[in-house]
Structure formats: structure tokens, C-alpha cells
Design brief:
The chain is an alpha+beta fold and 243 residues long. It has helices at residues 22-34, 66-72, 99-113, 162-177, 188-192, 205-216, and strands at 7-10, 14-19, 39-41, 51-53, 81-83, 86-91, 118-123, 128-136, 142-144, 152-155, 160-161, 181-183, 195-196, 200-204, 221-226, 234-239. It has one domain.
Length: 243
């Protein structure tokens, strides 16, 4: 199974993380600390200067998705690419901050200190979503990035399992974006034992997934992670932060 692992330390008002995906790790830290459900979406890591090849004994980095875990278990000769990552320190507005204020403090610190990347917070119907707005393209120049889950799709509103709904959402996003978007680490029981009638026409994939998430009424949240190697696609990972 995937592990959203990082080296994190925190004081009452300051949080520091060290991770291949520092913003994802910081969001997870907020979820664990305050019981929030903030989602996260990776950018496409396509510029060679933003990724690192790790093999053999040097492959001691936190893994955050099923594909990265499988890659880490391959022989040392197997080429594995991960985001460079790094550290991120941010100060919360108070010892008991509001959700939006905490996320804005996180992103302000990251956007000002990590040249070539820019994240933003998106207000959903009931959740906050952290998405990448700018990233380096193949040439290394900063370019606007359209979040994958901004893709507008249509899902027929009929009763189905949660697994069937998510599979259909990801399939339609994959077709519309010409990018593989598949399931990563998700609780099998949660998908097969719950049913839903969610659907709609001309809605973003994010809104459909959010509606499903809110319907669950649990602390589960998602991380949509880009895999620099393999098929250069995304894995949707849904987990419940422990802490």
C-alpha cells in the first residue's frame, strides 16, 4: 500500500516538512493535526531539473503512491524517478487557525520560496482543494497548468458502487485529457461496500469526487499524484490521515 510519509516537525505555530512533495506533506500534516479534509493535486513533473532518478541503496525516499512503492521494490537496475522535493516551513496565523487561513499561509510560504512552482487553493462545495497553477514545462520555463480534475465530464446519475463511480470518472478524465488517470491506494471495502447515485452533466471531475467524498461523511481525503516514470500519468489515492 502507499505511504504518505515525510519528515515533519511542528511547534504550536510553525510546521516544517521535508518531502519529495512538500506541499502534499504539509497538507497532510494539517489534516492530521486539525481533522480537516483538504485535497491535493500534483502538477505534471515534466522538466528534467524537477525530478531525480533514484536506484538501489540510494532509493531511500518516502513513497506516496502505489506506482512509487512498486518502483522502489524493483531491482536496483530499474530506473525510478521521483520529484526533487525539499523542505517547507510555514507559520500558522495562530495556534488554533481557521482552515482557509492555514492553507493560505502554507501556500504563501511555498510560492514565495520555491521558484518555478505555484499552488493555489480552490473552494469547493464543502472542501478546500490545493492545486498547482504554474509549473515548469519541458523547456524549463514557467507555464500555466490546468489541474486535471478541472476537466468537465458527464456522469449518468444512477445507483452504482463507489468503485464503479470513481472508475468512470477517472476513465472519462483520461480520455478527455489524453493522460492516464487511474486508481492508486484506496480502501477496497470502502469502494465495493458503498453505493451512490451521484452524477451530473457538465460538471468538473473535482466536484463529482467532492460530492462523493462529502456523502461518505468520514475523514477520508484524496491525493492525486503524478508519476514521472512509467506512463507519466496520475494515481488517485484516498486515505484517512492518522494522528
Amino acid at each position: 500500500m502507499a505511504a504518505f510519509s515525510s519528515n515533519a516537525s511542528a511547534s504550536p505555530n510553525t510546521i516544517t516538512v521535508q518531502d519529495p512533495r512538500p506541499v502534499a506533506a504539509a497538507v497532510l500534516e494539517l489534516d492530521k493535526r486539525y481533522g480537516w479534509r483538504i485535497t491535493y493535486e500534483d502538477p505534471p513533473y515534466v522538466y528534467y531539473g524537477d525530478i531525480t532518478e533514484v536506484t538501489g541503496i540510494n532509493r531511500q525516499v518516502p513513497v506516496q503512491s502505489q506506482s512509487e512503492l512498486q518502483a522502489a521494490q524493483q531491482p536496483a537496475s530499474q530506473r525510478t524517478l521521483v520529484p526533487n522535493g525539499g523542505s517547507l516551513t510555514f507559520t500558522l496565523p495562530s495556534a488554533d487557525p481557521g482552515e482557509l487561513g492555514a492553507v493560505e499561509a502554507l501556500l504563501k510560504s511555498y510560492n514565495e520560496s520555491h521558484r518555478g512552482f505555484e499552488f493555489a487553493v480552490v473552494h469547493g462545495a464543502g472542501l478546500l482543494h490545493v492545486v498547482r497553477r504554474k509549473a515548469r514545462g519541458l523547456s524549463g520555463n514557467l507555464e500555466p497548468v490546468k489541474p486535471v480534475l478541472d476537466t468537465v465530464i458527464t456522469i449518468e446519475p444512477r445507483e452504482r458502487t463507489s468503485e464503479a463511480l470513481i472508475e468512470e470518472v477517472l476513465k472519462k478524465v483520461s480520455i478527455a485529457t489524453n493522460t492516464n488517470v487511474g486508481m492508486g491506494t484506496i480502501s477496497f471495502n470502502m469502494l465495493t461496500r458503498t453505493k451512490t447515485s451521484i452524477g451530473g452533466s457538465g460538471r468538473t471531475a473535482r466536484l463529482i469526487l467532492e460530492q462523493w467524498m462529502l456523502e461518505r461523511r468520514s475523514r477520508f481525503s484524496w491525493r492525486l499524484l503524478y508519476e514521472p516514470d512509467y506512463d507519466k500519468g496520475y494515481d488517485l489515492n484516498i486515505s484517512q490521515p492518522s494522528g
